[in-house]
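Reproducibility note. Readers wishing to regenerate the assembly model reported in the main text can use the exact inputs given here. Chain order matters: entities are listed in the order in which they were concatenated for prediction.
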Amino acid sequence: MLEKQSNVKAWLYLLPALALLSVFTFYPLFNAFLLAFLKDYVYGSATGFVFMDNFKNVIADPNFNQAVKNTSIIVFVSVPISVTVALMISVLLNSIKKFQGLLQTIFFLPYVTNAIAIGMAFAFIFNESYGLLNLMLSWVNIDPVDWLGSWETGMVSLLIYTVWGGLAFKIMVFLSGLQSIDKQYYDAARVDATPKFRVFTRITVPLLSPMIAYITVTSFIGSFKAYRTIVGLFGPTVLPAGTLPDESFITIVGLIYESLSKSDTPGMVSEAAAASILLFITTLAFTIVNMWVSKKRVHF
Amino acid sequence: MEIKLQDLTKIFQAKDKTETVAVKSLDITIPSGKLIGLLGPSGCGKSTTLYMIAGLLKPNNGRIFFGDEDVTDMAPEDRGIGLVFQNYALYPHMSVQQNIMFPLENIKVPKDEALVRAQEMADLVGIGDLMSRKPKQLSGGQQQRVAIARALVKKPRVLLLDEPLSNLDARLRLQTREEIKRIQRETGITTIFVTHDQEEAMSISDEIVLMELGEKRQMGEPQDVYDFPNNLFVARFLGTPPINMYDGVISKKNVLVNGKAIGTTKGADGEVFVGIRPEGYIIDKDGPLELTVYMVETIGRDTALIIKVPNTENDTFRVIVDASERIKPGEVVKMKIKPKKMFVFNKETGELIN
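Running the prediction on these inputs yields the following structure tokens for the assembly.
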């Protein structure tokens, strides 16, 4: 009896959150799955069900290959680099005593800054004629580069921006992890004449492995959804008129938006839904593999 | 390896610039190959002293010698010490074997040799069959043996143990202290351990160093220190049940407690503290002390009489008598004092007069 009562109470407390989640998360999620299997859906009506046609259309889209390529580069290049760089910075930050609080704040500032604002700042840094990067390059007599003008240099700029933008949160998590490691392990390592690099690889990294795994998994998921960063750096149109498909910075989420923007064409909303589901399945599969690998490597 | 501490001082400075003298002009010479217990109440500077010997803390003043070598400014890793931390500090992600081998990897011992040496050490401390376990899968006592093996495997010149038994339960503590003694005997390594537990220190140490407020109060073989305490602190700190301390007076070489002469002294007339060990009483119907028994504690081997007496430090104290004496609560017992168990201390300085 008592148990039942408290159950009712628990549900009661959960109700507001559940109501909001149902309307804004569960229903759209369910609806996306439904939309992906509708035929010629437009303005709320469809002519029937299809099985794979919407998915086939997504894959046949001339921008699909480019979106997969761009997303993959962002995922597989930026995540490992930013996790490594964040780890290095955290260890260095943790080892200094003076100004630690100040530096921690400085490194955390990007996290509370709007991504679009940061993107605009970076767009300025990478600007061909008055950008800071070209200015610095001119000091060492390197000709100005139109960083955002071509796909190759644009991708390099995007990756730099993405890595930098992701550092703040990672550093914060790593730092809190580092500070919770018992100092006696380091004293013990010191007494045993352990070189600094071995202390890092054999003690710090293993003891930090739960944090590293967490950050890696969440960063991978986040990068699969990359879109904001591109809008921040290149502007709101991911497919400017006249760009060739293999010159664009479209990502999978960008592709979804592109399809949605043509929602008055029959079937385009369903294509967007199908693309989201493809992204969802990929991310899920990747995360499962990720968790499985880290389970073997994480020591606690 | 003889260890010499010369005028060793450590001052900790808090953020508000207040200074705490943790260790004050400490002079100790620790003979080679002995097991030494640093003993004292918490906050007496014993762990600080240990960590200065280890090199993890830097003294503000004074020198530390290992043999003839001055190691004061040497980094801990160059001193050749093995250190066992209070909570062992075993690397949780490594197996027992990896933990023990870790110090050897650092000094680039070939893997085959390292494996052999790790196994030898593990066998010595009696955990040879647990090599593949993780520290979490071990009991407290086993973890501690791993920590000792890890400290010993690189053949240090000195073994340092910080409160080695404090994390173990009572039975394991008895067993482990014998074990530490045995390991020290077998390896012959100069060993210093820190403890606040007098029984622990007395039972296994070759010599004990008693510390209070950052200063050495007395050093010597446990029995000597117990039998001949230099001062009030040592007399009070050693012994369970604790020593019975009376306010007394010296009058013409006689020691008077509550107006009754209970012994003689060479001290000058004046007020003193008179300490009598609980086992220093003999029941004697002509004895000068008349004590009213308040309660009787039977232990089996002997009997503790709980006595209430005016002019003592505590309201009650214990007197240990033979178990064959059948005494009931409320009885008045007359006693005399064994002269060797009575100590007279200067009331101001706390120094022994006798």
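We highlight two features of this model. Chain B has a mean pLDDT of 83. The two ends of chain B are 37 Å apart (CA to CA).
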